[in-house]
Amino acid sequence: MKNFTRAARSLACLLVLAQVPAQPVFAQDTAQDEAVPPTLLADQQEPWLYKNSDVPHDKAWHFGELDNGLRYAVRKNGVPPGQVSIRIRVDAGSLYEADSERGYAHLLEHMLFRQSKYLAEGTAIAAFQRLGATFGSDTNAQTTTTQTVFQLDLPNATPASLDETFKLLSGMVTAPTLSGSNLKQDLPIVMAEMRERGGAAKRVQDAMQQVFYAGQPLAEREPIGTVETLTSATPKSVRAFYERWYRPDNATVIVAGDADPAMLESYVRKWFGDWKVSGDKTPAPSFGDPVAPKSADPENPVGETRVLVEPDLPSTLMYGILRPWRQVDDTIVYNQGLMTDSIAQAIINRRLETKARAGGSFLSASVNQKDVSRSADATFVTVTPLGDDWKAALHDVRAVIADAVSRPPTQEEIDREVAELDVAFQVPVEQQRILPGSKLADDLVNALDIRETVAAPDDVLRIFRESKPLFTPAAVLEHTRKLFTGTVKRALFTVQKPGEVSDQQLHHALAEPVKPDQTIRMAAEAKPVSFDKLPAIGTPSEPVVDAPTGLLDIEQLSFENGVKVLLWPVAEEPGRVMVKVRFGGGYRSIDPKDAPYIALGQYALVGSGLATLGQEDLDRIATGRKMGFNFDIQDATFQLSAETRPQDLADQLYLFAAKLDLPKWDVNPFMRAKAAAKIQYDTFATSPQGVLNRDLQYYQRGEDPRFATPTPEDIEATTPEGFKRVWSKALSQGPVEVQIFGDFDKAKAIAALEKTFGALKPRLPAPSTANVAEVQVPKPSDKPVVLHHHGDPDQAAAVISWPTGGGSLGIHESRQLEILTQLFTNRLLDAVREKLGVSYAPYVFSTWPVDLQAGGSITAMAQLDPKSVPVFFQTADEIAEDLIANPPTADELELVTEPLRQQVTRAASSTSFFMSQLEGATSDPSRIGSVRSVLSDYTVTTPQKMQELAARYLGQDNSWRLEVVPENAKANVATR
Hints:
Layout: H1 6-18, H2 30-34, E1 62-65, E2 71-76, E3 84-90, H3 104-114, H4 124-130, E4 139-143, E5 148-154, H5 159-174, H6 180-196, H7 200-212, H8 227-231, H9 235-245, E6 251-257, H10 261-272, E7 302-309, E8 316-323, H11 332-357, E9 362-372, E10 376-385, H12 390-406, H13 411-430, H14 437-449, H15 457-466, H16 473-483, E11 488-495, H17 503-511, E12 545-548, E13 555-558, E14 564-569, E15 577-583, H18 596-604, H19 615-621, E16 630-633, E17 638-644, H20 649-661, H21 667-681, H22 688-700, H23 712-716, H24 720-732, E18 736-742, H25 746-755, E19 785-789, E20 796-803, H26 811-835, E21 843-847, E22 857-864, H27 869-885, H28 890-907, H29 911-917, H30 926-931, H31 934-939, H32 943-953, E23 960-966
Parallel strand pairs: 2-6, 7-11, 14-18, 19-23
Antiparallel strand pairs: 1-2, 3-5, 3-6, 4-5, 8-10, 8-11, 9-10, 12-13, 13-14, 15-17, 15-18, 16-17, 20-22, 20-23, 21-22
Keywords: Hydrolase, Metalloprotease, Protease, Signal, Zinc
């Protein structure tokens, strides 16, 4: 295959050798092979997407229209190899519903999966699993206010599997059953989904819709619908909605994948060409326009303002300037305007961020223009105040904006944002050979939804660069003024305490004039920063060892200072280089009494600076570059990671090495992190899922304080001196492993490594195991830990977990446990979602810390109503007991192993897969050998093996459980 990467080719050899017995890579379809190859019929002269547009056509897409009005687009794409991504878009969402039909568009999405022409009731999930597609990731659907999209990423696509897939999808969309039985089965699932989406966040979302889009359908047209309309639904009323909007002339089929476009087109024509409906197409309803109150000041038309009290959410103020949305011709001139808008917004956002970093009245603030649901063209301003003086925060943000609309920006400010946009447009050009087909298909879906076009990356970059003379201070000022001019201004302020502010006070604060704040502008004479002016890491040093690992073309370097490096140049991934640095001892190396500094490190360590660079300098020095600075804390290691480009690799390595050897300790990022951590803490209590995010890891790790989310009191007790003490020690201790995988020149990479990681001074030894607390796991118990949330009284969550193990010697077993976990997931979905309807998305997952000898687990969880918590525990216990007592059937096992086979094979077509598999391999070479068995480990097993693993780990005496219930529910354990 033309775009089959070296990684995929090499892995294919490894995986085929690993199969016992060997399996054919592709099934043959003799009838198809002998047939005459189809001829592409799509018309490229006047593609329907580009009507009234002078945007260059993306020639990779082939557009066509069937006699029945169905439109389609197909294209060849080989990333990942063998996959074909199919999207079926229906131009109907919740804004197309009548008052009595609220929620029908989303309900239909569920019912189309329930039963249709070629799928018996409740068999869709299994049918797509047999084709290798995983439910929820490869097979899914979504309903928005303006569209419903059915999505399927078919792995290992063959003529036979493609034909079957198009057949099944066509039956779902063109001939669903929509029976009373279907409705009875799906309604509880939809209601469970509604319940899980409730709580404080949903109340804020509802209030935003009602305030900002007052008088328009969008104000009350959430896709989930209402209890009243959904429970009143009948097969007849649902079918009426279906017949009104599910028509070929209201649908588009989009296909991108590793197949001949003519073949893809032939499947569209074969399976959708006979779709016939009667009657004329119903015109789309009007979505209305934003309207200002008659009493509003024409110069500052402030409309509705509302204060919403939510005790557990941080105080957040959002106001919007709204204008009518109108469909436009997607021309080059129009896109040049959008580019200028982006520059204008970026300049203001950078000024706001600079002001927030310096310490002031707000923690964060931003502006963002959005076209919302074809209902409004809006500019939103979001502010998170610090402290109680919200008026000062709003004033300071408005003052920055007032300055932006009163005077043009400097050319330096414009040039900086233009450089950032240039990189954003250049990267897709460099990486277009590795853009996944699923993303290309989704991009076209989004373009259809907003009534715009798509263009090839080369054309986008060319148009942008040719447009640079247009980005003048005067032009940016003109667009800035338009962004902050509109029909009406509306606001929503979420506060924690009643009486803090009234609707009228908020209205007055938005209406009063404000003087421009000129102090935050970037000075034209700002001191330049560049890498060649930064201090050296140390004395450059050549590697003392450069040897092959024996796996593919991956090599290992070793430096005298103990740094070890894995290198894999892969030219078939153009323009992308992945860099990962693992160092130190992770969670386990931090003293438990210093636990609050762990969370603050995640917030502030990178922003604290390095060498002579503060946070602002780091931003400036990365301008026009593709660089990253992600920081992660794992069980037994810390990790820095980034995706960069070949030309930026040397400087990316400097940033990471300097963070270890030349850390800077700016106070402002630490203070801002403290404020953010304290503000965020209360939000966890707003829902069962929030409480799990806060506390589950703490309980799974035997109540180790290092895995607890620190309370505001814990955070308040921290100091800048303590932060420096904890993190300077963490940065200086333990071994360093560097991975560089992707498109780079080996000689240049080694030269850069010699000046950076090779020049590091010898590391202090990691804490001995005697000084590191042992891995703790919860004691088995059938009495749940009970936690409480402050959300809706009909919300709860339940967790049951079985400790397993850890360590690299158990990698084979950990992969087999993934098969067992998927078996458990399928049964749990069938029981509590499909049959009982008490939970929307129950799931089971397995963890296995490779760097530790214990601490892994199999965990099942679900969100449900409080009365169903015992049902969940009983059901999970019954599934576990049955897996112990009875081996799964061969067919049930195949429903799990085939999707896993496809997941692994697709993932392995990218070097990032190997990076994850080889983490820690420089100190534990057994991990290199374990890669060769990865496919067989995940897919080759027996029913008896699954039964043995279930017996070893899933016994009732091995489990512990946790539940999260409303705060007013009776419980024996106090809220944490």
